[in-house]
Prior knowledge:
The chain has 1049 residues and is mainly beta.
Amino acid sequence: xxxxxxxxxxxxxxxxxxxxxxxxxxxxxxxxxxxxxxxxxxxxxxxxxxxxxxxxxxxxxxxxxxxxxxxxxxxxxxxxxxxxxxxxxxxxxxxxxxxxxxxxxxxxxxxxxxxxxxxxxxxxxxxxxxxxxxxxxxxxxxxxxxxxxxxxxxxxxxxxxxxxxxxxxxxxxxxxxxxxxxxxxxxxxxxxxxxxxxxxxxxxxxxxxxxxxxxxxxxxxxxxxxxxxxxxxxxxxxxxxxxxxxxxxxxxxxxxxxxxxxxxxxxxxxxxxxxxxxxxxxxxxxxxxxxxxxxxxxxxxxxxxxxxxxxxxxxxxxxxxxxxxxxxxxxxxxxxxxxxxxxxxxxxxxxxxxxxxxxxxxxxxxxxxxxxxxxxxxxxxxxxxxxxxxxxxxxxxxxxxxxxxxxxxxxxxxxxxxxxxxxxxxxxxxxxxxxxxxxxxxxxxxxxxxxxxxxxxxxxxxxxxxxxxxxxxxxxxxxxxxxxxxxxxxxxxxxxxxxxxxxxxxxxxxxxxxxxxxxxxxxxxxxxxxxxxxxxxxxxxxxxxxxxxxxxxxxxxxxxxxxxxxxxxxxxxxxxxxxxxxxxxxxxxxxxxxxxxxxxxxxxxxxxxxxxxxxxxxxxxxxxxxxxxxxxxxxxxxxxxxxxxxxxxxxxxxxxxxxxxxxxxxxxxxxxxxxxxxxxxxxxxxxxxxxxxxxxxxxxxxxxxxxxxxxxxxxxxxxxxxxxxxxxxxxxxxxxxxxxxxxxxxxxxxxxxxxxxxxxxxxxxxxxxxxxxxxxxxxxxxxxxxxxxxxxxxxxxxxxxxxxxxxxxxxxxxxxxxxxxxxxxxxxxxxxxxxxxxxxxxxxxxxxxxxxxxxxxxxxxxxxxxxxxxxxxxxxxxxxxxxxxxxxxxxxxxxxxxxxxxxxxxxxxxxxxxxxxxxxxxxxxxxxxxxxxxxxxxxxxxxxxxxxxxxxxxxxxxxxxxxxxxxxxxxxxxxxxxxxxxxxxxxxxxxxxxxxxxxxxxxxxxxxxxxxxxxxxxxxxxxxxxxxxxxxxxxxxxxxxxxxxxxxx
Length: 1049
């Protein structure tokens, strides 16, 4: 017996799984069972007690590494809440409100971690010159993360957690952390709290150094009485280290007082008695001055050195006038080798006039610009030149709520640097998506050339964040992901690798009259305007007209034809042109109601087409436009570039359009006369509540009737009718709403009239379980431009249970899906078998059914195997290539259900092979947004701004593989901590001793557990034990299980 590539079985004499060069697992396996390499396989296997496996960074469900894997997240993190940067590693870190932590370096270098706690990440700090970083959550817990090398690839691991504990009976504010300073030594964390105390913690072990803590009483006793008598110090707002003397830090309190504290002498050396509410501080690079920013929109410069500064006059500067201003939340000053320093601060805008603006002001000499961002500013930092990152400021990196913006500070005009990742996919809301695999080089280069003309306003400077090494192999092929947006744009993304890189943007709004001003330039500001605003960022969620929204996209990669359909029934056919062209686009009106009386469209009106010629830039240019009447949302779309035809469908019917002759070939109305909801449109506020209630009561009544019938019937007969693993399909009423809505359209060259003559055909499936087949009569090639194409009804199928038809596929004589148009002509697919009979596969929400052609008689079917109400939501045909043999593989159906489960169905036998949970069933928008690729991968939206990428294929997996090494100027201790797993024979033993030592200090029970494990392992060969996680993990022993793998020989 040989199992199919798609199998789901428990295999109960031996399957060997190599775990390392010296170890393996041997598992029982029948002699007559062989495994196919085409698909990911899921095995549930009991492991010996001495073997433990760590949770991987991706959602791998299989011990073999051949199962569903969610490989990488594309786009911008949803709801970012914290920003960190390591100049030595050149890595950027972003924390989110959902507890995720994401690291980015050079393009392709990405890491992701997730806190166990569902809490907001409020602070992210890298330890200087080390591979560790610390996160602070809003539940007041601190977490230590490290980049540990394992098998030549770095992994982001959480290695410890820590929460400050105050004295018994102390209020929570005593230990509520409000400020964090990672000391330049890399060995200390200073934690300022809401109670005004500063705790000193040793890292990476998270050991509190009580003798070095700075209590509020110590500070208060050193402050002059006239100040302390007037004001309470409040919480610690900011902590800053002296760049010249690491033993000195400035402690800034909420009320305004700043204290320069000597860590070695453990005493205050200077007091700076500011009177305004303190927001932030900055210590200048020469150590001579401290800048403080305040809640009234002012900032002050204070001299450091000498005796107490209580007599120093407070000189504040309010950059934007004497009217009430918003707080300056952060201030930075950086010197330049030649010329004045850069001064940067966020906020400070006049409250009444510009209080709603999100600005960072940059002042350099006489140049003053207020960068106006598209959403709330989270944080920012400046990247500096030079090997030690102490040179001139090079780039300003700003994290706002909806995007990451990088400003080139060395090019005149301070232009924006285009981001290779973290691009805001949702700059206008995503309404649909379409994936195209294996793009020909010529089309790829033409798209790149058209896209380059759109980014001339960006800086020519390369991306400044370059940390880590991308070890991933070059993509085997060029893949495109197209996203349609609410503002009528279609964006083309390079989806070949880890980074989703923007290539080209197409706008369809120019064809129609809209309220948008085409001459509007966001970056322009009027001469003499104050503050000197300049808009930056591309996030613009507001659409001028919701009717422009793109609903369906279809691209032919061989011919360069693209069709785009929208919310108001508009279908554009476009062609790729390397030159700009001025042309008029005429609309062809198609009446899908075919003159039926008694219907009144209550929805939106159609878009007005421009009558005058429009200048279209190089790229995709429209040359044909079909306008459906009524102007309802286009629900189905397909393109056949070899026949030069487009088929489209709405909730009222479907049509066929010849875009070479610009003629309508076919119109078919599918509207149910009793369906009034289909006449209201998606933008209508009127909903038939009575009809909805009536339908609900009907379903309840039917279910009760069927239940009574079942109980009264013979039990044996009931067992015959309903398989124990299958759910009985409930018949739907023909009066349900939107039964005429067209769900799928499909072109096929197959046998419709008889088994000896094949012809072009169009197939349409509706929401009411109807399938319509039309035979298309094509003229000869020489008369193609003159003679009209005709279409005649050939077949009609009505599914018994009226379940919506989700997909239609025709299988050739070999049982393989028919190739795409022009695919055979380009020698990229074998010719379909036209000798044996073809088969028709109709996929409804309830079942998969095979019909023979041309007789259209039912051959076999597969009901959706579920007991919890599963319905098919998305279907794709995928090729699963072997991971061992380049040319071997099989085609299969990839199916996503409303429960979020991914199923693989074999072809042509329609047998369920593999099932994996993928998306949460509650995530309706994620399920609706899913799109499959031709090679067993897929994308779905996990948030409005992020795509999750997954793979079911053993061969086609796109995931980040990166290595981050310890900086050259790191301390010996940090290099020793960053040694890769298994780097030395006794490394694991040494680390475990440190774990044991710290456990002894904290909990005797944990000490006994760790000691027992260590003593049990001492007699093992060194190579059989991988290194335990960082010794810092001892502050929470659950972190011990986070080591990559512990193995036995």
